[in-house]
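Re-run with default settings, no changes from the original entry. Doing this only to confirm the output is reproducible before filing.
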Amino acid sequence: MRVALATCAILATAALSWASSAEVVEQQQHVLYLYSEPQTGHEDYQHLMPTILVPIKESHRHHPFTSATSGRVYFSGDKSTKDEERMLVSFRVPPDESVGRCFLSFFHKLGYSGGAGEEEGDGVEAGIRGRGQMYAYKLREEIFIGKTTYHGRPRRESDGVVFGISVPLEGGYADVSDQGVQCAPGETITFEIVPDREIGMVDVCWNQEAEEEDEHFVESGIGLRVISEEWFCPEDN
């Protein structure tokens, strides 16, 4: 009887832990209501903020994953420096039947702050700069904040790169390969972002803190551009 009760208690604790992790995803899902001018020339899409964004430090590989909503990631591509080597980012695709493709984006309207005395515009400093390439791989397992560790991190769906990210040396919009990835309504989609080992340095900043009357306003950051199927397959006139 004691064994049975102990087993039930363990299962209940595990269920509560899973529910708590799932809540993180739901609570942090925001649409980017304010964004710089559309780069595609079309408005039939929306940008999503990450539900989970996890910078991974080599020196913290044994610690459970913790999420961040603003900050800085410095990729050196060198384990000896103990800098971040990769970043995990998750998005919850809207439950909309018209969803077609999703595109990862690194964006900022005001430019990357290059140093002291340069205008940052309302304190928003975000974007990307460096040289060379970063690569985004799609993961096939969900991230559980506070549970998953570096060694137990979700596995990649395949060895194929989903997005290649060309990093501008002077800062600005990162040039992300535009083939997109098919995304299903309501799907949680997670990417692992890693730098090219020959890159030398990539510096990523983001800020997702602005909020007013439950609407989240941001002009800079890491996002997912969600484009409806109708945009790709318009009805014949």
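DSSP finds two helices and 15 strands in the chain. The chain has a mean pLDDT of 64.
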